[in-house]
Write a structure and sequence with these properties.
This protein is mainly α and 573 residues long. It has helices at residues 12-42, 54-65, 83-88, 98-113, 116-126, 132-144, 146-149, 158-177, 181-197, 201-217, 223-247, 260-266, 269-289, 293-306, 312-337, 356-369, 372-402, 415-421, 429-448, 453-483, 508-516; strands at residues 71-73, 251-253, 500-503, 524-526, 536-539, 556-562, 567-572. Helix content is 61%, strand content 5%. The strands form 2 sheets. It has a 5-stranded mixed sheet with strand order 4-3-5-7-6, covered by helices on one side. Residues 1-13 have low confidence and may be disordered.
Length: 573
């Protein structure tokens, strides 16, 4: 009788193959969990909103959707979207303190945002044809990119958009490669999700409609696929309208619809120059924060459009991605130009950040699979974009300064760029160009010496993680400390059920963060005399200053507050 312990049986090979087949899904699951934990660790100092008034708008709407009180939103009727508040509304179910609900929002953000790891892996395998180890490392680079991970710290829609872009373009590639009603409906559903989430979705809806039309004209799809691709978009647009009507006046809007001022801001020679400068700055920004890879990717995408070397699915996907990049950069610049009550931004990269992971991955695909001469030529184009862009930005800054004006700079305009260049106080375009050029040089070296490919990918992950740590130290932690009222509302003895109002004399950031803690009511505002219904008021406390609010004149007793932060709570005596 044969001893099975000494003679390998025929099942040994299948068992080994099965183990290997489960290895990648296991690594992706572990990577996703690690990504969630990392994002929650980065957000540990943020216990109240720091990005006003966008966060306030989403949070107030989410609370109303969960059955709680409403509040204000800085949105306008035309561009109002409810997708993100719907996503985070479960955080407001139950009787939680606001800080608990906010932490749950961050957890939802982290879970969705970290999903870019498996999505990026699939993109690397299917679209870029990378082998498994390189696809895993490339996905890790995309998942740690600050443009991807930063907004998971706060209640902002941008935390969802990076993964959604990758998922959508993956679905587009699948649809072109294997046409069918299910593939068409998947693409339509993801486009509808964009529309439900943010006004940037309008650009993607337009591009999607153009794609469907072109595919129909080229006879790549039939009428059934057209309906499958368009009906989900229409359905989710109707969902948005239905939820808006359901909310009614629980959430009241403070924003104004775009008007003729937007057209006037760009409908002149000078306006078109400003628009071109804003678009060019966003394009340059994408090349810098991807270490030159976006520039490499664009050259490859344009070549693919001219001559399909990797099949029609790749060609169509690249065309769609390029159209969306130009559309989002241009559309965002037009909208921002129409906000005439504020100075123009020196740079505002937030709207194009969602595209950075995709173009980074495409650029990595070129570097990891391309030959030395090919990568050298494409990196040279990226280098030209970096240097020329830096020179034009510097010229724009100098011209504006010579006219006695200043462009707005800082905040949430481009935190990753600020960290990479050390430009926390001033825009440093040539430092940004050097960052990108260093990236290009590394790419060329990794192509020339193939054994450097893995170390390069690991180094990019390390740089990304380090950049996020710099952003946390220089921006997130100081903002969290500066915008958190102390003491907390509950520590002052304000009880659930009391009618609370807030004075406009309290700085708006502190007023909003105090109001969020009143979870049982919508805190309305007043100027000087408190409403007759008010039982508790939050007012300005500035001892010795003429605008110090004296509640004793109206029969109130001070409960406490913080004179250094210029606010106090009063209860009607």
């Amino acid at each position: 009788m044969r001893d099975p312990t000494t003679v390998p049986g025929p099942a040994a090979a299948p068992d080994g193959a099965l183990a290997r087949r489960w290895l990648v899904p296991l690594l992706l699951a572990l990577g996703w969990l690690l990504g969630v934990a990392w994002r929650m660790w980065l957000a540990r100092h943020v216990t109240l909103p720091i990005a006003h008034t966008d966060e306030d708008s989403y949070l107030n709407t989410a609370r109303a959707l969960a059955g709680g009180p409403g509040g204000f939103s800085s949105e306008n009727e035309l561009l109002r979207r409810v997708g993100y508040p719907m996503l985070i509304s479960p955080a407001f179910l139950g009787d939680h303190a606001f800080t608990t609900s906010y932490r749950l929002v961050q957890l939802i953000n982290a879970m969705v945002n970290a999903a870019i790891l498996p999505l990026a892996y699939l993109l690397g395998r299917r679209l870029l044809q990378l082998d498994q180890p390189l696809a895993l490392l490339a996905a890790a680079v995309a998942a740690t990119l600050p443009a991807t991970a930063f907004y998971a710290n706060v209640a902002m829609i941008d935390t969802v958009l990076g993964p959604l872009v990758v998922a959508w373009l993956l679905a587009v590639h699948r649809w072109i490669d294997r046409p069918g009603p299910l593939a068409a409906a998947t693409v339509g559903l993801l486009v509808g999700a964009f529309h439900l989430l943010h006004s940037r979705g309008l650009v993607i809806v337009v591009v999607h409609a153009g794609l469907v039309l072109l595919l129909l004209v080229r006879r790549r799809i039939g009428p059934g696929a057209v309906l499958a691709a368009l009906l989900p978009v229409l359905a989710l647009a109707l969902v948005n309208e239905a939820v808006v009507r359901l909310l009614g006046d629980q959430v009241y809007l403070l924003g104004s619809n775009p008007d003729g001022g937007t057209v006037q801001a760009v409908a002149s020679g000078q306006g078109l120059v400003r628009l071109g400068a804003a678009v060019g700055t966003q394009v340059w920004y994408l090349v810098v924060i991807t270490f030159g890879l976006a520039g490499v990717a664009w050259v490859a995408a344009l070549r693919e459009l001219r001559r399909a070397e990797r099949g029609p699915a790749v060609r169509w996907t690249m065309g769609v991605a390029l159209a969306v990049t130009v559309g989002v950069a241009g559309g965002a610049s037009v909208i921002l130009a129409g906000i005439t009550q504020k100075p123009l931004d020196a740079i505002y990269g937030r709207y194009v950040q969602m595209l950075a992971p995709f173009w980074l991955l495409v650029g990595l695909g070129v570097v990891l699979a391309g030959g030395y001469r090919v990568v050298l030529r494409r990196a040279a184009v990226a280098a030209v974009l970096l240097v020329a862009g830096a020179a034009l930005i510097a010229a724009r800054l100098a011209y504006v300064a010579s006219q006695g004006h200043r462009l707005r700079y800082g905040g949430f305009g481009a935190p990753d760029l600020f960290a990479l260049t050390g430009g926390w106080q001033e825009f440093r375009p040539f430092a940004g160009a050097l960052v990108g050029l260093a990236g290009c040089a590394s790419l060329i070296a990794a192509t020339r010496v193939r054994r450097l490919r893995v170390p390069l990918l690991v180094a990019l992950v390390v740089v990304n993680v380090g950049t996020m740590q710099v952003i946390s130290h220089h921006m997130i932690r100081p903002l969290a400390a500066a915008t958190a009222p102390a003491p907390m509302v509950a520590d002052l003895g304000i009880r659930p059920g009391e009618r609370v109002y807030a004075s406009t004399g309290v700085h708006y950031i502190l007023r909003f963060n105090l109001s969020h803690q009143v979870t049982w009511a919508d805190v309305r505002w007043f100027s000087e005399r408190p409403p007759a219904a008010a039982e508790v008021v939050l007012t300005r406390w500035a001892p010795g200053e003429p605008d110090d609010w004296d509640g004793a004149r109206y029969g109130f007793v001070r409960l406490g507050g913080n004179p250094e932060q210029r606010w106090a709570a009063w209860r009607r005596g």
